[in-house]
Every structure is written in C-alpha cells, then in structure tokens.
Amino acid sequence: MSTTKQPTRPRRIDDALSQLVDSLTPTLPLASVNYDNYSDEEEAIAAAESHRHDAQLDRAWRIIDTYPAAGSADPGSPAGLGGRRGSLAAMESVNNAPDLIKRKLRRENSSPDKAVRFSNLYSRLLTQPVLSQKWGILYLLYKLSEKDGVGAEGGERSRSPSMDDGNLQNMLGREGSRPRRGTHSRAFESEDEGPAVSSSASQKIPLSKPERPNSFVERESADYSARPSNREVDERAGAASPTMTPSSPQAHSKESVERGLLRDLPFNLQGLSSSNLQFQSASVLKLPQNLPSPIISLLHSLAEPCLLYKGLSEFCEGTNEGLIHQSLRAAISKEIHSYLGLVATLEAEIRQALAAIGDGTQSLGVRKSGVTLKRCMIWTRDATMALRLMSLIVEESRDKKGGQLISLIHGFSTSHGDPFVGAFAEKLLAHVTRPFYDMLQLWIYDGELSDPYKEFFVDEPEFRPSTDSRGIATSVWEHKYKLVDRLIPSIVTREFAEKVFLIGKSLNFIRTGCEDSAWVEAYSKEAFKELKYGDTDTLESSIDKAYKTTMARLIHLMDDKFKLFDHLRALKKYLLLGQGDFIALLMESLSSNLDRPANSQYRHTLTAQLEHAIRASNAQYDSADVLRRLDARMLELSHGEIGWDCFTLEYKIDAPVDVVITPWGSRQYLKVFNFLWRVKRVEFALGSTWRRCMTGARGVLGNVEDTLGADWKRARCVIAEMIHFVCQLQYYILFEVIESSWDQLQTEMSKTDCTLGDLIDAHNKYLNSITHKGLLGSTSTSRYGSSTSASAKQPEESFLTQLHQILKIMLAYKDAVDGLYSFSVAEFTRRQELIAKIETRTAQGHWGVTESDVRPRRANSRGGTSIASTPDIRPASAGVDGIDTPYSLDGPEMNDDQMLPTLRSRLRDLSAEFKSRLNILLGDLAYQPDVDMRFLGVVMNFNDVYEPVRRRKPASSSRDKEKEKERERAKRKAATAAASANTGSGTESSAPKEARRE
Amino acid sequence: MPNPNPEDKRQAAREVIDILHEISILLNTNLDRTELSLCVSLIENGVNPDALATVIKDLRKENGPTRIPSQAAAE
C-alpha cells in the first residue's frame, strides 16, 4: 500500500517524516534482533532497523492520510492535499491552539509565570515571518504535551490547589495579550494576505468569547472585516459563536437598540428620562420591555447609579436644618460633581464610538475603544459604589444631627470592611466635620458657643431651673452649659469632650464671670490654631495646651483677683470658730444681750458688738475686704425663742466666688456655725457657773457648808462631767473634723493641675465631711419630732437631736445650779441676819432667839428678793405638769425647808437624765462606721465611767420619741421653774425668763 | 514568504525553532530540536498537525517500552 501511494506523496514530507521516525525510533537492542537470517551482526541490525523503519513510516503515513490536511486554506501547500477537508471542529481546535496552550498552562501551574512566558514567546513567534503554519505547530505541541501533562498534572495540581483562573484571565486577557495580539494580527494582515486572515479571524473568536459575549458591535465589525477576504472565515466565525448565528437577522436591530441605549445613557446617568428609559418617580426607572434579557440585566445595573444620582441630587437641593447637614450636602454635591465629570467623559467616549460606527468605516480606533453597555457598566461601577454609600449615609442621617451624623460617617470609615468604603467615608468626613471643627475652634479659643442648630456637644439650655434637686441655686459655672452625651461624635473620646467642655466653660466663665475678656482675647489670638479632621496629634496637643492655660488662668484669677482662698480661710476662722479670741469676746459681749427674747434683738446692737469683738481681737488684722463681708444678724425663727437660738454670723460671698462657695455651701456653713455656737454657748454658760462656784466656795458657800456642802459637791461633779463632755465635743469638731478636712482641702487646692471643677468638688467634699462628721448630717434639724419619718432618719440627724437634748439638759442643769447658788446665798444672808440679830440682842442684853425672830426674817427675805414678782402664773403651770416641781411650792406659804429638797431632786433628776442620754449617745457612737466618730465616743468615755446603751430597734423608736418629747417638755418646765424659783438671787439668767413671761 | 537572502532566512528559521523549542519545553513535549524542526517542516508542508501528533504519540508508544531499557543499555 505504501508503495502505491508513495509517488503521490510530496517528497519533502516523506523525507522529513522518515527522519522523524528515525529520530524517534531508538536503536534496536541487540537482544531483540533476530540473528538467524543475517551473517553479520551489523547487517542484521541494519536490516531489522530498516524493516522496522519502513513499517513505522508506513503506519505514520496511514495515520496522516486519515486526517485532513491542516493548511487547506494555505495557498502555499500542494494542491493535492487541499482537496481533503476535515471537520470544521478540528480546524477550530487547530486554530485555537494558542488559547488552548495558554489555558492548559494556567490550569496546570499555580503561578501565571509560565503562561506569561508563553504569551511572550508567542508574540515573538508572531513577529517571525518564516512560518505560515504557526497554529499548526503550536497545536502539535499542545497535543504532544497533553500526554505528558497527565503525569505532570497531578504533581502540579497538588502544588497549587488554590489557583485563581479568573484573575489570570483578567491579567492576561485584558492587559497582556489582547492588544498585542491585535496589533500583531493587523501587522500580519498588511504583510501577508493569505494566512493573516485566517489567523486574525481565528484569534478574534476565542478572544471575544470569554471576554464579552455581548459585545455585538465589536464582533460584528470584526466579522465584517473578515468577510470580504474569505468565505470560510465567515463560516468559522458563525460556528464559533452559536449565539450569534441563529439571531443574525436580529443582530442589526439589537445593535441599533444598544446604540440607542448608549446614546441615551449619559442623560439617564444624570437622572433624566430618555425615550427608552423613563423615570416614573424618584425611585422608579422604567425599562423597555422588548429587549433580550442580557441587555435588561445590564440596564438593571446601569439603572442603579441613575436612580441614586437622582435621589442624591434631590438631597443636595434640599434645605435641611443644621450646619453639619449642610456640610454633608456640600460634600456630597462635590462627589456628585466628580460623578458628573465621569458621565461627561463617558458621553464623549460614546459619541466618538457611535460616530465611528455611524460612518461605517471600520477604523481601528472603534474596535480598540469599543464602547458597549457592559463597558459603561464597568466604568460606572466605582461611581455606583460611591453613590450607593452616599445614599446610604443620606438615608441614615435623616433623623440624626450634629455629632451623631459625624459618628455615623466615622463608623463607616473605621469599621467597614471594604477599604473603598472606608476611604470614601474618610474623604467625606474631612468635609463634613468642618463646621464641627469650626465650632470647636471657637469654643476652645474664645469660649463662645456658636451653634445655631444645637449640633455641638455643648449645649446652652434656654430654660435654667432656678434650683436643682439639692436646693442649690444655679450658678454660671454649673448650669450655663451642659455636655450632651449623645452628640459627642465618635471621632473624639469622652474624656476629650469633657476637656473641651471644661476649656470652653472656663473661658466663658473668665469672660463673663470674672470680667477678664481682655485676657481671653489675647489668649485666643495667641493660641489660635486651625483645627481640622485627621490631624489628631495637633488637635490633642492644642487641646491639652489650651486646657492647661485656661485652667491655670482661672485658678490664678480666683486666687489673685477674687481671693477665693482668703475667703475660704475667713469662713473657717469666723464661721467655724477658728478665731478663738474673737469668738470668745463676741460671746462675752453678746451674752447678756442674747439672753433676751429674739424679738427684742436689734441689728444695730448686734453689729456694734460684732465690731467691738473685731476691734478688740486679732481679727482686726484681717483684711478689710474680709471683715466687710462679716455680718451678724438674727435668723427668722419662730416666735418665742431667745436670742441665743437666733443669732448668727454671716459671711457674704459675691459673684465669681459663689461658684465655689455656692449658696448651698453658705447654708452648710451657717448650719455648722449654729451648732458650734450652741456648743460654745453651753460651754460659756457652764464656765461662768463653774467660776461662780469656785469664787463662791471661798466666801458665801463656805459658810453654808454644813447644810449644802454635799449638794454643792454633787453639783460640781456633774458640772465637771458636763464640761468634759462639751470640751470633748468641741475638740472633736474643731480639730478632728474641721482641721483635718481643711488640711485635705488645702492639699487638693494646692495641686498644680487643679481646675475650677476640682476646686468646687474639693470644697463640696470639705463641707460634706464637716457636716457629716460633725454629727450634723445634711438634713435640717427642724425635722425633729416628725414621728412618721423616725425610722428613715439618718443616724447623724438623730445624733444632732440627741446632742441638742443633751445641751438643753446642760443649760437646765446650769439654771438649777444657779438656783442652788441663790438658795445658798439666801441661806447665807439669813444666817448673817440671824447672827446680826443675836449680836444686837446680846448688845441689848437679851439672850437667845425666840420664835418671833424667825417670822420677820422670812418676811424680810421674801421682800428682799424678786421672787414675789411673779407669784400667780406658776401654780397654774405646775398643776398641769403634776410633777413635783418647785412651782407648786412657790406660794406664799413656801419655806426654805421645802425649797431645798425640790432643788435637790431637780438637780438629781437632771444629772440622771444627762447620764442616761449620754449613755445612749455613746452607745450609738460606738456603732458608727466612721472611725473618727467612734473615737469621739472613746474619748468621752475614756475611763468607762458611762455604760453605753445600745439603742432600741427603729420599730419602737417612734414610741420612744414620744416619750422623749414628753420628758423633754416636762424637763423644760422644770428648768424654767427651777430658774424662776431661784430668781431671788438675782442672777443674770433669770432676767430674760421674766421678760418672756411678760 | 519570499526572502532573497538565504542566510537571513536560515537565521530566521533558527530563531523560530528556538522559540518553538522553548514553548515545547514549557509544554513538556519531550521533543528535541531536530525532531521539532522536522515537525515544523512537516507541518509547513501541509501535514495535519493532529495527524502528526498522533503519529508521534504512536511511535513513542511503540518504542516507549523498549526505549528506556535501550538507553540503559547504551549507558
């Protein structure tokens, strides 16, 4: 067979094939050679080889013959071969060889290097004019590699499990090979007619297939370009694009439809209706019905930017309230401008492309920069993302304002995973925050709030409550501005916001409260720095600097100009009884005055006494400004009180300083003063009584030692006890409480970075610790006796009432002792008279004393004292009480024998009462959480002379209170009675009592 | 492809073969330069590449099993 066909075969092919067979056929191994037929070994081998060669060559020819010739279209190939024509599919695959190879390389290799290298080699190959059947050779190589690839594939694959075909496709298809291929094919076209057409056409088809299945314009033009050259190309193209072939009659109409759509697209993208796409409302775009679904889906994606743009441009037109909103609108309209720029470029491209197509000339430019709907969609993709993000922001910002809006956008820029969104939001933020930073600037440098839409996180409430829940009057510092938490944008931290708030508030306070606007202006001029978003370091540092400067200035002003610390010191000196000589002098000079009822006190006498006390004490060396503020007046208390209860010192605080020493603070000072004053008064009274006892003991009392010595001894013991109590109490309050709190206050205030806010806090803490520890508590004393709240009462308050009780008992006891003294004096006088009488009698020569001598003495003694002045009222009050008070005996028939026992019993009762109350108080103190207060109890009871009693449970306390009240009432009556009973002695304490009764 | 200068032509042909050889190495075809040039000339002369591939594969299959031992023997 081979022999018959041999002549028809081209010589060159035969030679080449034969050589190929030779090279592929190895030398036969000796073992496999049959030696029988040949004598010579070499001959045998040669024969065997030639035999085998022939056989294989024959087989090769047979194989080749069964296939159609590759280069049938090749005019250079022999005509005999051209007659056979294979299937078109085979042709296709031959012509696709480069793509096949590329795909294979990509599939089998993880990295695109090999494919890229192939592309390079391929492009070099294309420039070689030598070969006409490049595709055939490549296909051959491809086919050959396939076999080996099976083995290699496994290894390569395992090495690269995560191969991204799509990326590679993009990389090679778009950037690398495509334009190069195009130019080369075109270069071929001009150079060599025949093969170039097939090559250009064949490469065109696989190219357009994966990349743009719908690029009708381009494909059509490519096909047109191929058509005139060769009929076969057309056929191939048709076969290659099955979607194309059946719809070829429609292709033109589709093309025109797309052209129309393209022409309208720029308008649609600007939110304008066109003949094909019409906006039915703000959010509805109507698509034409009769389009194939690929175009519809493209239009769907293209409709998004159209609609978003429409919505956003409406938003930009709007006039929403708020500066931040306005800046957002400005930023968005800026973005929209750039979007419109994109649309304009797009439009230019489309026009150019359409014009080129319209001409009908297949210029290279059209094919290269073909504009299709799909391409438009790709071009607008980024813009669409931006538009989408903006419309999301706009949507969410509707009910937000100021800082919330900034927080919203900031949230996008920091916590969104997409870097595009993050970067875009960041860009937007730079514009949107501008008004915020303007406000911030004004606030921290000028202390002015310029926030017409209430967007800043500092708010100036229009309605200022006259008093807050604590009953503190408003102050410029506390209530003029408020920090609004929900408006703090997330770009600043909470501490930062507080700092900013304090800076502005301080500046404002310096300007308005301290009238130092000159400094503020100078400061703002000097420190002014442009603030803007993103410059966090500058912002932080400038804020810190501003904070320090402002605070230092404010403290300086407070200290220097307004003498805050001097005022605090003066308050401690005068209201907290720090200036001992002054207080003692004041009390001494006022005591006789204050024993009178409250309504007979006159302001001018009080101020005169105050002035006297100041002049005569060390207080005179204090600055005039401080002394000017000191004032004495009567509290508006209920009728019937004596001067002691109502008297108060006052220290006037005016404008800027009242930020620290608030009206509430002043009231606390007054409370403490009143309590201290009361304690002081008791101490003073006890002291004067003690003095009289001591002086009297040498004179008057020594003479009545026989009858009253035991009574006096007991009385002195009790008074000593009381004095001990009062001294301990005073010591505790003045030293343990006030001094230690003052020390804390000093340390707080002398801190370097102390702010006005810190000062206020420190001062409030100081006052609180004084009122709390000084047994005063924060609630007022007037609540005593309201049994309903008995169980809810604070322990401090009940301490206060207990202390008041004890102080009252002391005063009553003092009165009783005064009564005893008067009695002693009366007794002494009686004895003196008796002695005098005896002496006169002796002188007259009479001896002894008769009954008649006693009676006139009683009459004399009654007449000589002031007891008789109020005889009528007492029996009545005594009758009501029904207790054995001295009143009942205070009749015309009262005598000394009855008077003494009542006095004694009264003294005994009072001292017992004092002891029991003190025991209760000590019992309470022992269970205090505060160490200092427990210590007070220990100090008072250092030698365990008292037995502290644990108080009963609150359930029974109301009944207890009733009893206490009852007892208290009785006691008071007793006290007054005792006092009045002894008025005969003419003590100073009896004078006011009489006055009250009248 | 008329080329007046035979020297140039040979040069060009060598270049082409170089390129093709590289590609063939890339593709792991196991063809040496001679074989490759033979294939090129065959295809240039109108042999169907598919058929040629089949031939080469066939020949390799035929000689494959004996080839390795023969190489071993030659060494």
TrEMBL record, chain A:
- One Pfam family this sequence matches: GCP_N_terminal
**Would you say which domain of life the source belongs to?**
Eukaryota
- TM region(s), chain numbering: none
Gamma tubulin complex component C-terminal domain location is 564-946
Question: Biological process GO terms, please?
Answer: cytoplasmic microtubule organization; meiotic cell cycle; microtubule nucleation; mitotic cell cycle; spindle assembly
What are the Polar residues biased-composition ranges?
242-251
What does the entry list under GO cellular component?
A: gamma-tubulin complex; microtubule; mitotic spindle pole body; spindle pole
Location (main, coarse): cytoplasm
Region annotated Disordered, chain positions: 149-257, 853-896, 950-998
Gene Ontology MF terms in the entry: gamma-tubulin binding; microtubule minus-end binding
Domain Gamma tubulin complex component protein N-terminal, which positions?
Answer: 262-561
- Residue stretches of biased makeup (Basic and acidic residues): 149-159, 209-222, 958-969
For this chain, the family text in UniProt reads: Belongs to the TUBGCP family.
What's the protein name?
Answer: Spindle pole body component
Species this protein is from: Penicillium argentinense
UniProtKB/TrEMBL annotation, chain B:
Localization in the cell: Cytoplasm, Cytoskeleton, Microtubule organizing center, Spindle pole body
InterPro entries reported for this sequence: MZT1
The UniProt keyword set, sorted, is: Cytoplasm, Cytoskeleton
GO BP term, example: gamma-tubulin complex localization
Q: Which GO terms describe its cellular component?
A: gamma-tubulin ring complex; interphase microtubule organizing center; mitotic spindle pole body; spindle
What does the subunit comment say? Part of the gamma-tubulin complex.
Protein purpose? Required for gamma-tubulin complex recruitment to the microtubule organizing center (MTOC).
Q: What is this protein called?
A: Mitotic-spindle organizing protein 1
